[in-house]
Amino acid sequence: MAMMEKNLTGSTKEKQLVIDSDVHAYFDSIEELVPYCDESLQKRLNIGPFKKKAFNGKVVSSAEFRFPECRYINPLSVLRLDAFAPNGSIPGADPEFVAKDLLDRTNTQYAILNSANATMGAFHNVDVANGFNSAYNDWQYENWCEKDSRYKMSMLVSPLDPVAAVKEIERIGKKPGVVAVNLQTTSIPFGKRNLYPIYEIAQEYGLPMLVHPDSEQSGENSPSQAVGPASTYMEWHTCLGLMAQRNIASLVCEGVFERFPKLKFVFAEYGMGWLPGLMWRLDKNWKALRDEVPWLKNRPSEYIRSNVRLATQPIEEPFRPKDLLEVIQMAGAEDMLLYSSDYPHWDGDEADRVFSTLPKELKHKIFYENALNTYDFNR
After folding, report:
1. Strand partners, 115
2. In this predicted model, what pLDDT tens digit does every residue of 270-285 receive, in sequence order?
3. From the CB of residue 303, how many other CB atoms can be counted at a distance below 10 Å?
4. What pTM was estimated for this model as a whole?
5. pLDDT surpassing 90 at residue 365
6. In whole angstroms, how large is the CA radius of gyration of the chain?
7. CATH code for residues 2-372
8. Inter-residue contact 129 to 120 (CB < 8 Å)
9. 3-state DSSP call for residue 275?
10. 12-16 and 2-6: which strand pairing?
11. 24 φ, ψ to 5°?
């Protein structure tokens, strides 16, 4: 779908309608969650009237709550320095400004919100993680989804507590602004059977699972690089796709998509250039080793094309632009790719610049149609 707009010469041109599958909603301070937390959780998060007091300029208690933190920090800032709101909010923290700066400017019909400064998917204390997730979900729904119907959210759950995750999905999973379930980590194999209750209710509610890089190598997270930790942010960021590959193989080989055929898994911010090789290797090994996985009725690549979706940012940028099209065609991924801006992060992909060399029909699929077929916006 496209709309017409006039350019500077007075002539009209088509402007692509956009669904953005990765927009980050920040809060300026964790204190914003106080109205959504009971007294017990406020104490454990060290917020509100229960915040530890300072004595002579120092915090009295060393038990102050801290989010699990990634070891790798962008030396230039992970946030776009041109996206601060006029009211002084950090980039991504003012829903009204984000609507003007991103949604209006890029003709975005829907934006899927992913948590930004809230990383609890592998936090070691699952009670705190579960309480925080519920508070954050309520905060995001009230302050974003109810303020502008273009905002849709991926709700947070903890994969370390599937029972609590199911209860949280039952609590808010049918709200009209909730369109996905965010597991917040990729450092555990997603094919494991203890996660099946989450998948069962997500399929029942029509909610795709969504995963995104967060605090790898923190909390209960294992290293994101199987051969050991990276030395630099550049190395860590480049190798994020390894986690997506490992988990797609887990989902396929463990038979998750055979058991839950309507379940979609969205991998956001892992790239896609590695996809053909992963498909080829899985298909080749399945031919010889299918006795190990008798539950797989189809080739692994068929499950991947049917049930896996990849948010495009940060899209690979080959020296020859036409090579990107060939990679997409080699993987048969025309229906798998979902445009994402990653606003307001440093390596975001602008809708009016990315995919400029791709055929018009394929661009329409990536920018709009594929997301429309992945998320239920009419909940």
Report:
1. 25
2. 999 999 999 999 999 9
3. 23
4. 0.91
5. yes
6. 21
7. 3.20.20.140
8. yes
9. helix
10. antiparallel
11. -100, 125
253-286: b (≥16 Cβ within 10 Å) or e: bbbbbeebeebbbbbbbbbbbbbbebbeebeeeb
Provide CB contacts within 8 A for 86, sequence distance 6+: 97
Instruction: Identify the residue whose tokens are 């956009």.
Output: 18
Tokens of 128: 């705190």
Matching residue, tokens 């070891």 = 71
> pLDDT at position 235, please?
86
* Structure-token pair, residue 150: 């273009």
Give the number of other Cβ atoms within 10 Å of residue 167's Cβ. 14
Rounded Cα gap, residues 233 and 213, in angstroms: 13
- pLDDT tens sequence across 115-134: 877 778 778 789 999 999 99
- How high is the pLDDT of residue 125? 87
Pick from 225, 252, 245: nearest CA to 236: 225
The confidence score (pLDDT) of residue 239 equals 85
Query: In what helix (H) or strand (E) does residue 205 lie, and over which residues does it extend?
Result: helix 196-205
pLDDT at 59 over 60: no
Q: Where are the domains of the chain?
A: 2-372
- What the block records as the tokens of 29 is 């301070």
